[in-house]
Amino acid sequence: MTTALADATDEEDPPESGPIRRCIATRETLPKERMLRFVLGPSREIVPDLANKLPGRGMWLSARGDVLEGALSRGAFMRAARGPVTLPSDLRARIEDGLRARIRDLLGLARRAGQAVSGWQAGREWLQAGRAGLLVQAVDGSLAERARFGGRNLPAVAPLTAAELGVVFGRDHAVHVVVAPGRLADAIRQEAERLAGFTPAVPQVS
Fold this sequence. Notes:
It holds the Pfam family YlxR. By secondary structure, this protein is of the alpha+beta class.
């Protein structure tokens, strides 16, 4: 569902404190975990701050592709920055690539900490032992194989391809990854949900 973009407003945004932020395009207030932060670079270029750590006044946008496109076409960044800005032509691609990289990094951290396993057998063992907090499956994996794997009562995301998951786990490909409950699982799920707002569903083999 597309949310109508808000008109220009002189209303001041609240300070960057607390768990809620206001979208510069729609003026919705949402949890910051469902949004993207942008800052102005040295030459007034718009820079996505996916980790929410760069200095400067943040400009927050709902983590959805349609909202980004509307913000670009209607000058929301210029209004929020109170002046001219430089918009990279590949801004959407930078966001998508950056979110995928964050998911890969988080999965790598989980693997090295012993909090994630890949593969059918290891994953099924974790499911049966109650050690699973999140199921990560390949977006291009077989729907039938993914359904057979189980974990129906678990949160599940499919942000990366089998080849991308395989790189994280030192394999040619990986369709099933199980992550233990905890902060890393929560962070992976959050980033996957932000990415899902920008990427259309990929047709999958049954």
